[in-house]
Model the fold of this input.
Amino acid sequence: MTPRPLLDSIHSPADLRRLPESELPALAAEIRAELVEVVSRTGGHLGPNLGAVELTIALLRVFDPPADTIVWDTGHQAYVHKLLTGRRALFQNLRQSDGCCGFQHRQESTCDAFGAGHAGTAISAALGFAAARDQAGGNGRVVAVVGDGALGCGVSLEGINNIVETTKDFILVLNDNKMSIAPNVGAVAHYLSRVISAESYNRFRDGVAHFIARIPHIGPPARKAIHRIEEMTKGVLVHGTLFEELGLRYIGPVDGHDLPGLVRTFQNLRRLRQPIVLHVLTRKGQGYAPAEAAPETFHGIGPFNPATGTACIDKAGGASFSAALGNALCDEVGKNRQVLAITAGMCSGTGLKPLREKFPDHLRDVGIAEEHAVVFAAGLAAAGYRPVVAIYASFMQRAMDCVFHDVCLQNLPVVFCLDRAGYVEDGPTHSGIHDLGFWRTLPNLAVLQPSDDAELRGMLSLLIARNGPGMLRYPRGGASALPVQTRTPLEWGKAELLREGPDVAIWAAGRETLLALEVADLLAVRGIRATVVNPRFLQPFDSELFLRHAAAMPVVTLENHVLSGGLAGIAADLLLQAPRHRGILRRGWPADTVLPWGPEADLRRRFRLDAASLAEDIAAFLQNPVE
Done:
């Protein structure tokens, strides 16, 4: 841990408040250096946190968690919050096994009031804290910090709509780091923000209004006229009338990198007891040139060279499934102009940048609005188009009802491409390992899992041509070709035999086939000859081949999913029809355990899902083939 004199002295918000104001800019510089140093080693959300340095310092300078409640949306802006609330040593192992969580985590610190990894939860959760405070007669302040597009999330809008019905004491900080959303900071905005947030102004305004209202005949009309003038002025100069119409006092925009100004503003807001929106303008990547130049790249990034900003790319797995999807969609659009892609604020993450560059009219980014994305796709499909919806598997869980109600019940030809369908190092909020139990129950929905780039391309073409809904699930990481000389052409509902042997059949879903082939090689050293099967289709499933194998030899199922609802569940259901099977060993993530964050290799070793452990366990299982 690199010595940083000011940061070394801060173990709680109380220490921060004792620091002289003149040293705060130097502290901000130390924090930025710390962020770059740590994230360059561990990967993480660098850009949003670099932009939130001054904002976080000002918040913790004025408010005092846990006595005051600060809820961050989605939490990937909260690295600075962690550094200033006693977790600097833990932060050195950000997103590592037994290290610091990449999001707010209630078990990690009492200063983390609410944990979340998905966007849109802060306002509703903070309202819950505010309602609880009001119910108990408490005095703590409640602040929701919302940014990175989360304000447009449906849950956020529902929360905003309910603020004035819930509490009279609430602060919403809009951390606006998309500079096109609002005008640049100017002298008028600075002035209005200071004046209308100042206690003296509010006292003066309320006092004058009270005095005028008491003047017979003249008072009430004059008070209304003054209010209308104030609202019109703010509407022209401040652009906050939308919030005002919802009953929220709008203040801003203010410069989110003006540390003294932010501290003064929060000090003034702390004295007010009303629903308030503070609009703060920040810049993603502030203070680190590579991140300023490429904010989309540095939003979430793996390890990189801190001197240059160049990513450290692991070529072992070849091009990713995300990249494979982007390239495949470009080919599909080139052949069929009825194909339209939809993403929910994750164009880069889902690999669709090539499509955006080559066929911009065939990509719709709806922002962080997964439910809308699905129903929007349903409308496109009903109108005759072939929509392809690319969303992370864990994020698609928010739209499960829409997939059922708006797509599957109407049997509409929508293709869902679920990226990160498997364990993800960010932890339980991002691991796509819980969804198959739901998808497999839906009518008309086909569920396919590709094992490599070529298979993804073939499956995508197959589903686009199908007159009904279909889903591709694939993990984060490499999609290089399987080390198999001859591949069987895709046939609807049929599995693929990758290797044949008489001793055990390993059925491995999706990319786990690569692991299964490695396990088969290790078993061969032990004299065990294994069959390896790529199921390809989880729905419809090749039951005939599976039952044939189960009758002939012990079977192992392997999947990057919990042992409930996925391939293991399919196998268990089928074996109820085959009481004379030879035994089964099911391997996947435990269904009754919340998996932590950290490198996937570490978790696989811990849960015996690495090649060496699997080979050892299968060999032991074959000595007594019952689960």
Observations:
- The chain has three domains: 5-293, 321-473, 497-623.
- The domain at 497-623 is CATH 3.40.50.920 (Rossmann fold).
- The longest helix spans residues 24-42.
